[in-house]
Design a protein that fits this description.
The chain has about 220 residues and is α/β, with parallel strands linked by helices. It has one domain: Vaccinia Virus protein VP39 (Rossmann fold), CATH 3.40.50. It is about 35% helix and about 25% strand. The protein has eight helices and seven strands. It has a seven-stranded mixed beta sheet, with helices on both faces. The longest helix is centred in the C-terminal third of the chain and has 17 residues. The protein starts with a helix and ends in a 5-residue tail after the last strand. The structure holds S-adenosylmethionine. S-adenosylmethionine binds next to helix 4.
Length: about 220
C-alpha cells in the first residue's frame, strides 16, 4: 500500500520529524497510485486543495510532461509543499472557489470537498468547469459514505483531523455518497461522469469520479 513513499517523500528538503510522519501517514492511507490512470501525460494540471503537495510531488515524478499548479487555503501546508524539489509546481494560497478561468487541461481535487458545505461544493465545481479548457478532465477523490464499517471510522478520523488536531483546514464535515457526488458533477455541467471505487485493501472507502468538460459542438 505504501509503495513508493520513500521515493516521493525524499523529494522534500529537510521536512522535520512531524512533517515527515504526516507525509508517510498521508501516503499510507491514500491510494495515490490508483489515481494515476485517470491523469493525462501532458498539459496544465491544477490540484485544488493541494495541501502539503504530496500528490503534486508524485505527479512530478510520474507525469513529467505535465505543468503543475496547486492552490490551497492553508499557508503552513503550502510552505511544506514549496520545499518539495520535484517539478517545482506553481503554488498559490487561495480559496477553491476562486480559480483562474479556462486555463487547465486537468483539475484534481483530492479529499477536499468533504470539508465544504453543499453550496460551496457546487460553487467550487462550477469554478473548476470554468477553469478547464474544452475537453479537459476533472478528477475528484473522496470517501464514499458506504460501506458503513469503512465510512464510520474514517469519518471519525477526519473529524479529529479537522477539529482536534487541526491538521486540516475546515469546520464541519460534509461527506456525500458517491451517487450524490456524481450528480453534483453533472449539475456543474460535466459529462461522461465515471465513478470508480479504489478502496480494495484499504480501510477507508476511497472513490474517484472522473468527468469531462464537453467540447462545443
Ligand atoms: C485532507 S486535506 C487533502 C490535501 C491534499 N489534497 C491531499 O490529498 O493530500 C484537505 C485540504 O483542503 C484544503 N482546503 C480546505 N478548504 C479549502 C478551501 N476553501 N480552499 C482551498 N483549500 C481548502 C485544506 O487546507 C487541506 O490542505
Amino acid at each position: 500500500m505504501a509503495r513508493g513513499a520513500a521515493r516521493v517523500i525524499a523529494q522534500y528538503r529537510e521536512p522535520g520529524a512531524g512533517a515527515r510522519a504526516y507525509l508517510h501517514l498521508r501516503w499510507a492511507v491514500c491510494p495515490f497510485d490508483r489515481l494515476l490512470p485517470f491523469i493525462p501525460r501532458e498539459g496544465r494540471l491544477l490540484d485544488v486543495g493541494c495541501g502539503s503537495g504530496l500528490w503534486l510531488t508524485y505527479l512530478a515524478l510520474e507525469r513529467p510532461g505535465l505543468v503543475l499548479h496547486g492552490i490551497d487555503a492553508d499557508a503552513r501546508k503550502l510552505a511544506l509543499a514549496a520545499t518539495s524539489q520535484a517539478g517545482k509546481p506553481v503554488l498559490r494560497q487561495g480559496s477553491a472557489d476562486d480559480l483562474p478561468e479556462g486555463t487547465f487541461d486537468c483539475i484534481t481535487i483530492l479529499d477536499v470537498l468533504y470539508v465544504l458545505p453543499d453550496e460551496v461544493k457546487a460553487k467550487v465545481l462550477q469554478g473548476c468547469y470554468r477553469a478547464l479548457s474544452d475537453g479537459g478532465a476533472i478528477v475528484v477523490k473522496e470517501l464514499d459514505t458506504s460501506p458503513t464499517w469503512k465510512f464510520a471510522p474514517a469519518a471519525f478520523e477526519e473529524l479529529l483531523a479537522v477539529r482536534a488536531v487541526k491538521m486540516t483546514h475546515g469546520g464541519r464535515l460534509h461527506f456525500q455518497s458517491l451517487d450524490d457526488l456524481s450528480r453534483a458533477m453533472s449539475a456543474a455541467g460535466f459529462v461522461d461522469v465515471e465513478a470508480t471505487r479504489i478502496d480494495r485493501g484499504y480501510l477507508h472507502p476511497h472513490v474517484v469520479v472522473r468527468a469531462l468538460k464537453p467540447r462545443p459542438t
